[in-house]
Amino acid sequence: MRSTARCSTLPPAALLIAMLWLTGCAMAGSDARAPCPPMVEYTSAEQARAADEVEALPQGAVIVRMLADYAVLRDQARACR
Q: For residue 44, what are the CA distances in angstroms to 1, 31, 50, 58?
């Protein structure tokens, strides 16, 4: 019975090509930063209205947790600038 070990290995040229493709993706450099997302500004009146609407939500509403996550994302975007 013949061994199939050689059939399952890639030729060295294929490994070299794969390595070149992967290094081509890293050409931007490790210090390259993704662009900061745009920040939407809200007026004081809009913020007050949003606070009133959140307070009117039923206890344990999932949207409150989602808004807290959104606040963290806004803080991260603000720090990006």
A: 80, 37, 10, 24
